[in-house]
Specification:
mainly alpha; disordered N terminus; disordered C terminus
């Protein structure tokens, strides 16, 4: 039975157009990316001000990922209990509280704990915003919204690098942190005028509100068409109630995709990307560069990430997922090996800086073209319907764990007393060799397959990265390439 309209109802009577959803999605991703990237500039300033050790730098950076794991685990239950809209608002409030606490921190231990609080908010947001957009957006734009998520994240990282550079001359690390309050506040303001999703409203018996939201997001639809969609959503809710849990991932026919998801999630982070994102200015400082120069170089890297993410969006459905993963891994192997050679052997500071920047630009181009957005696309494609929610949740949690491990270990690993920066580059180059081999032989191609066809092929043993799977595609079993 429908209940009294919530604050979402007034918004539901106004058209909710595509631009509104894109804008909302942008600020969700920008908040995520900003908090990932801003620490690069903060660490450069705090390392000197607080005399941070390598362990302390790693602990401060990795605490965001630890908090995000907690937030991602809490998101599913909170979403179902209070709704997608209020969950995202809660996430934004948590980020604001954590940000203010970071600004007030007086030592690295408090900074580590408060960054963990921010991470909880980021975990809640990153696990909920895509679901909110997918359930609210018309079907014809759901794919575009999903693909653009990585672009929004990269945009947030670039904005963080720009803010770091702008405030570095004033040693204003507190202002760097406070920049995160802006996208968080915009998220809250946007949610005050946007509705809850029809799927959640129907699951709570609020049928009238659900239909009003559908009418607002599909103004061209007739009442009969809206009634059909309401019934479709009810059918999905019924099927959801019949789904299994994590144990469904251990069925013999599903296990291969669990392995693929682990390769994608762990590989994305073990490729070294967040070591570069978080510590690039610190690395340049250790090589003898001035703070401003190091932070300006980070801005250049942020621009490269943005441009190649845009390119990936245009080619992922043309070139295919598997070729992009292989091309990206190959580029990362060559660029990281070359960067290690330069760092270990070049002594002239100007030449060292220029060549290191060039090779790391090439590295990030390979990452964004291959293992950046492509991994997120595939994690959402490879699991069967019954196990999709559990599979993506497990993969996301593992990805955050890998992020935390890399960012925690890198400062110690790259210290001069251990492997040094050049040695660390070679370690990541070696990992990317392994990723290249795994992408070639174990990761299947999903281009051109509908989600239902992927599930049928998986049940029939045709989903593999080997010659058998490729032969199936060549004989037409993979279906036609979908046009977006």
């Amino acid at each position: 039975m429908a209940t009294t309209a919530s604050p979402a109802a007034p918004a539901a009577r106004r058209p909710v157009n595509r631009a509104t959803l894109y804008t909302f999605g942008a600020f969700g991703g920008i908040l995520f990316g900003y908090d990932l990237g801003v620490i690069a500039g903060v660490l450069v300033l705090l390392a000197k001000q607080w005399s941070l050790t390598a362990f302390q730098k790693g602990a401060i950076t990795a605490s965001l990922s630890v908090g995000a794991m907690v937030g991602a685990v809490l998101a599913g239950r909170l979403c179902n209990r209070i709704g997608r809209r209020l969950t995202i608002m809660t996430a934004a409030v948590v980020v604001i509280i954590g940000t203010v606490a970071c600004v007030l921190a007086g030592d690295w231990q408090v900074m580590m704990l408060t960054r963990g609080v921010i991470g909880i908010g980021i975990g809640l947001s990153s696990a909920t915003v895509p679901a909110y957009l997918a359930e609210l957006a018309p079907a014809r734009v759901r794919g575009a919204l999903g693909s653009l998520n990585q672009l929004f994240i990269v945009s947030g990282i670039l904005i963080a690098f720009l803010v770091d550079y702008a405030l570095s001359s004033h040693n204003n690390w507190k202002g760097m942190f406070l920049g995160a309050v802006i996208p968080a506040a915009i998220l809250i303001a946007g949610l005050l005028v946007l509705p809850e999703t029809p799927r959640w409203l129907l699951s709570k018996g609020r049928d009238a509100e659900a239909k009003a939201v559908l009418a607002a997001t599909r103004p061209e639809a007739s009442d009969a068409e809206l009634d059909v969609e309401v019934q479709d959503i009810r059918d999905v809710i019924r099927r959801d109630s019949e789904r299994g849990r994590v144990r469904d991932l251990w069925q013999p026919w599903v296990r291969p995709m669990v392995l693929v998801a682990m390769i994608l999630a762990i590989g994305q982070q073990f490729s070294g990307v967040n070591a570069i994102n978080a510590y690039f200015p610190t690395m340049l400082k250790s090589l003898g560069f001035a703070t401003r120069t190091a932070l300006l170089s980070a801005v250049v890297l942020g621009v490269v990430k943005f441009l190649f993410t845009v390119w990936e969006l245009f080619v992922v459905d043309r070139w295919g997922r598997k070729p992009l993963l292989q091309i990206g891994a190959a580029i990362m192997v060559v660029s990281l090996f070359a960067a290690g050679l330069v760092i270990k052997n070049v002594t002239d500071k100007n030449t060292l800086g220029t060549m290191t920047l060039i090779f790391l630009i090439l590295y990030l181009a390979g990452y964004e073209l291959g293992w950046g957005a492509t991994v997120w696309v595939m994690i959402g494609e490879i699991f069967p319907l019954r196990a999709r929610a559990a599979g993506t949740a497990v993969a996301t949690t593992v990805l955050w764990a890998a992020t935390g491990l890399v960012t925690a270990v890198f400062p110690t690993m790259s210290a001069k007393s251990n492997l040094g920066i050049g040695g660390a580059m070679w370690v990541f180059a070696g990992i990317n060799v392994v990723l290249l081999i795994l992408a070639r032989f174990y990761i299947p191609e999903t281009k051109g397959r509908s989600l239902e066809q992927i599930e049928r092929d998986l049940r029939g043993g045709k989903m593999s990265g080997t010659a058998a799977g490729e032969a199936a595609e060549e004989t037409g079993e993979a279906g036609l390439v979908s046009e977006v």
